[in-house]
Structure formats: C-alpha cells, structure tokens
C-alpha cells in the first residue's frame, strides 16, 4: 500500500494526511457527542461562568472559576454563532481536539518522521488512541491547552533542527495561548529559556549558561507553583505576588508541608499500628508513586506503553540528540508537575496526565515503524512476533473502546428536563448531582447541590433547605443501601423514578 511505503513523504502527501486527520477527528467528535450527550460536571461550572460573563458580572465569573478564559471563549462563541453555551462548548472542544490531532502529526514530522509510513502511523494514533477520543464528549479546557501545547512542541522540534525567529516566536505565542487554559502552560512558558537551550544541536562550551538558565527556570517554576498552591486559599495572592513573590513561595511551600504532615498523621492513625508508625513515609511515597504510575499508564493504555517501552529498550531514538533532550525534558517536567500535585492532594484526576501521554506518544510512530520494517521483523523470534501481534490486537481493542463510551447518565438528563418542565422557576430543587441541577435550570445556585445523598437526608431531617419544593437524588444502580435509606427517609412512593436502563437512576420526591 502506498500509504505504508517507506519512501519520503512530499508536501502533497503530508497535506492529505492532515486533511484525513481533520476529517476523521471531526467525525469522531460528532460520534462521541452523539453517544454521550450528557454534559460532564466541569461543564456546568464553565457554563455558569459563561452566563455570568454574558451578564457582565466579571467578579462572579472569576469566583466560579479561577481560570475563566475557556468560559469567556464559550460566551463569545455563543454570541457569535447564536447557539447556547453547551453547544458552544462542544464546538470549541471539537475544534481544539481537531487541531491537537493535526499538530500531533506535524510534531512527529518535525521530530524526523518524514516517511509516508510514519506519517500514516502518526495519523492513525492521532485519530484512534483513547487519549484523543476519551474526552471528545466532554466540555473541558484541557482540549485548548493540549492543542496549543502541541503547537509549541512542533515549533520546538523544528527549532532543534532549523532554528529561526519564527520557531521562537511560535513557541512563545503557543505557550502564552496554552497558559490561558491551564496553569501548566505558564510553567512551560517560564521554562522556555531552558527548552531553547536543550534544543541546541551543539552544546559544547555552554555548561555555565545552561546551569544559570536552569537555576532561573527553577526559581520561576517555584514561584508559579507556589502561587498555584496557595491561590485557592488566599484571596490576595494575585496582589501580593508582584510585590512579594518570595513570601508567596515560602507561604505556599509551608502550606504544602502542613498538608503533607496532615496526611502523614492520617496514615499513622488510620492505616498503621503504633509499632509501624515510623514507616508512614514509606506508605506515603508508595501511594504517591502508584497514583502517578496508575494514572499515566491508564491514560497511555498498557499496549501502547509496552510498545514505547519496548522501543526505548531496543534503542529507538529521534535522529538528533537535541530532540531526544527536548523530549526527555518535557516528559520530566510533566512528571514533576504531576508529582507536586499528587504529593499535595494525594489523588490524580484521570485526564491530568493527558499532555504527558501525548508527549510520550510522539515516540510511538517511530517504534511501530521499526516493527513494520521487514528486516527488523525477520530478526524477531516466533515468541516476540506473537507478543507484538497480541499487543497490536490489544491496542486496536483499546482504540475501539475509546469510541464506545455510551453515556450511562441518561437518567440524569431526563430527570432534570422533567423537573424543568413540571416545576416553576421559583421552586427550588435539592439534588446530589450538579448536572441534574443544570438540566433542571437550577445550576446557578449550588447551595442546593450536595454530592452526598446521606448528607441531604440528614439535612432534610434537620430542617435544611426548608424552601425546597423537590428532592431529586441520583442513586447508583448497585447501591441498594442508599436506595433503602432514601425510601425510609422520604417514603416509599416517590413522585417519579427515572431509569434509562443503564447507569444510575434518579428518585424524585415532592415536598409539600
């Protein structure tokens, strides 16, 4: 097949591959949104902030979300296209994920993947890997960050072989745009001097320059991470950062130390006996390491991770040493950011390693290309051929599963819309799901949204929410104990039970 030819790809072939990526990405987004048409929890926050932007309530929008650019973009898109904020969010994410797929292929090309076969493999990774498809039906700012981060990575890869002012300018602008979506963009933007140094093809005689830039980048990284850590709990951080950055950093890292100490105390008291309390640090380090590894491998998927590890073990590298240094530096920085977050929070949201995963995946086309090489395949033993075939089948299965995320929250959407149609706007609804509150038109005031059903039941018994007219509780299908508590507390005759056949159910009660 001509697309798997090892001949160099010309511009026409590259343009065809990019067009395929764009078209396939658009189709994938439409399909994923079609089978999962219930908004995610974060989408409700973005929509709330967008509505406040539309009402010119700037401070309210910033209070809803501390990184509100994506919400502002939803507001602008909604006004420009005359669509609601939910549709605007889906449009933006579709565009950003499409750009991410295109920039991924261009990045692989800039790293030296210039053959037709390698570009074809890169395109297939970009449109089939679960990291690109799992969140297409979500309304999240991560898609915008990922698109501009990959454009910056493309510019850096080009700069490593053909340095120019255009690549420098493109990198800085791309990271500035990425910074509008996630804090990690600010970290990489401040580290651009270090990144440009590692992309130098000849680094002889620049040891002290590299060390000084590394020191400055480390200080800037500490400042921005310090601000990030303390921002949620301090209202005047944005005002004190320019005047006293050292104080902000010291306060933030002291705050982090206190949080770690609290977690150590919990480990000693809840998980360890008095005789083994001194090993709390071992348990803490193990927990952090497992969280980081589990989230990364889950996002990367096991077969693709094994492909890349096997490729590195076999000596697969990029053509230029500067590109290898760049790739390793970016992977290390991503791991450092995730490590800091995991140490503080002791949890990691599944999509947080998304940019790390995509960075690692830029090596995947080179590993698969080596496998497709006839000479390399002939040198493999029968057992290794069988293992590689198994990994290919496994990887295809993982890719298909990324396009088969049918919603299990249909009952939430149906219940919310039923409440919106049955109740008056002044009638308040207590619920344990903010998505239900959104579809019921009660998402602006989250005072009546409590994630814990048991807390809602105790609160109702204690006289909380006296003016609420309805109680709508999401119940997991397998959670019989919670359903029993609800029936005992609110009665065995709910106004309606919404059950879509799969996923959670919703029990709706009317409070006279």
Q: Could you report the average pLDDT, rounded to the nearest whole number?
A: 85
- What's the β-strand tally? 4
In whole angstroms, how far apart are the ends? Answer: 71 Å
Radius of gyration: 25 Å
Number of helices: 25
What does this structure look like?
With 512 residues, the protein is mainly α. It has 2 domains: 2-38 and 84-402, no CATH class; 410-510. Helices cover 69% and strands 4% of the residues. It has 25 helices and 4 strands. The chain has helices spanning 11-35, 41-54, 58-64, 69-81, 85-110, 116-128, 130-133, 142-161, 165-179, 183-190, 192-198, 207-230, 237-243, 245-271, 280-300, 302-313, 321-345, 354-361, 364-372, 374-379, 382-402, 410-422, 434-439, 453-461, 480-490; strands at residues 428-431, 468-475, 496-499, 505-510. It has a 4-stranded mixed β-sheet with strand order 1-2-4-3, sandwiched between helices. It starts with 10 loop residues before the first helix and ends with a strand.
Fold topology:
Layout (H helix, E strand, L loop, with lengths): L10 H25 L5 H14 L3 H7 L4 H13 L3 H26 L5 H13 L1 H4 L8 H20 L3 H15 L3 H8 L1 H7 L8 H24 L6 H7 L1 H27 L8 H21 L1 H12 L7 H25 L8 H8 L2 H9 L1 H6 L2 H21 L7 H13 L5 E4 L2 H6 L13 H9 L6 E8 L4 H11 L5 E4 L5 E6 L2
Parallel strand pairs: 1-2
Antiparallel strand pairs: 2-4, 3-4
Helix pairs in contact: 1-5, 1-6, 2-3, 2-4, 4-5, 5-6, 5-8, 6-19, 8-9, 8-18, 9-10, 10-12, 11-12, 12-14, 13-14, 14-15, 15-17, 16-19, 16-21, 17-18, 24-25
Features:
single chain, 512 residues, mainly alpha, 4-stranded mixed sheet, globular, 2 domains
């Amino acid at each position: 097949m001509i697309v798997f030819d090892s001949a160099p790809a010309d511009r026409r072939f590259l343009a065809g591959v990019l067009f395929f990526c764009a078209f396939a990405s658009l189709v994938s987004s439409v399909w994923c949104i079609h089978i999962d048409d219930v908004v995610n929890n974060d989408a409700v926050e973005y929509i709330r902030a967008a509505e406040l932007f539309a009402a010119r309530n700037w401070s309210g929008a910033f209070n809803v979300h501390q990184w509100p650019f994506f919400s502002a973009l939803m507001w602008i898109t909604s006004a420009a296209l005359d669509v609601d904020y939910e549709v605007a969010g889906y449009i933006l994410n579709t565009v950003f994920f499409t750009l991410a797929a295109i920039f991924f292929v261009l990045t692989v090309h800039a790293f030296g993947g210039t053959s037709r076969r390698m570009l074809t493999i890169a395109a297939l990774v970009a449109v089939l890997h679960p990291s690109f498809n799992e969140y297409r039906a979500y309304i999240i700012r991560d898609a915008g960050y990922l698109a501009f981060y990959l454009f910056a990575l493309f510019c850096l890869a080009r700069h490593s072989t053909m340095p120019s002012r255009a690549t420098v300018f493109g990198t800085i602008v791309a990271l500035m745009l990425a910074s509008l979506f996630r804090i990690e963009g600010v970290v990489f933007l401040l580290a651009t001097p270090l990144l440009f140094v590692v992309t130098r093809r000849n680094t002889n005689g620049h040891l002290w320059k590299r060390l000084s830039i590394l020191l400055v980048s480390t200080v800037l990284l500490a400042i921005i991470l310090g601000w990030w850590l303390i921002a949620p709990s301090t209202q005047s951080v944005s005002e004190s950062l320019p005047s006293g950055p050292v104080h902000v950093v010291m306060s933030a890292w002291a705050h982090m130390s206190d949080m770690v100490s609290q977690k150590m105390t919990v480990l000693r008291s809840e998980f360890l006996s008095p005789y083994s309390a001194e090993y709390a640090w071992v348990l803490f380090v193990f927990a952090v390491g497992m969280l980081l590894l589990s989230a990364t491998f889950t996002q990367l998927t096991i077969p693709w991770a094994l492909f890349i590890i096997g490729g590195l073990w076999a000596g697969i590298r990029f053509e230029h040493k500067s590109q290898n240094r760049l790739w390793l530096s970016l992977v290390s920085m991503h791991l450092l950011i995730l490590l800091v977050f995991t140490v503080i929070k002791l949890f990691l949201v599944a999509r947080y390693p998304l940019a790390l995963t995509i960075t690692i995946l830029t090596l995947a086309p080179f590993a698969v290309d080596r496998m497709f090489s006839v000479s390399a395949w002939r040198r493999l033993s029968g057992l290794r051929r069988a293992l590689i075939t198994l990994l290919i089948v496994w990887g295809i299965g993982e890719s298909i599963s990324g396009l088969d995320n049918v919603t299990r929250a249909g009952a939430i959407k149906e219940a919310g819309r039923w409440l919106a149609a049955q109740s008056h706007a002044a009638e308040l609804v207590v619920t344990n799901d903010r998505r239900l509150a959104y579809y019921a038109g009660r998402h602006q005031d989250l005072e009546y949204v409590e994630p814990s059903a048991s807390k809602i039941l105790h609160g109702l018994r204690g006289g909380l929410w006296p003016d609420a007219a309805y109680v709508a509780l999401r119940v997991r299908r397998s959670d019989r104990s919670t359903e029993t508590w609800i029936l005992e507390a609110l009665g065995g005759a709910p106004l309606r039970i919404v059950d879509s056949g799969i996923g959670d159910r919703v029990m709706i009660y009317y409070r006279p």
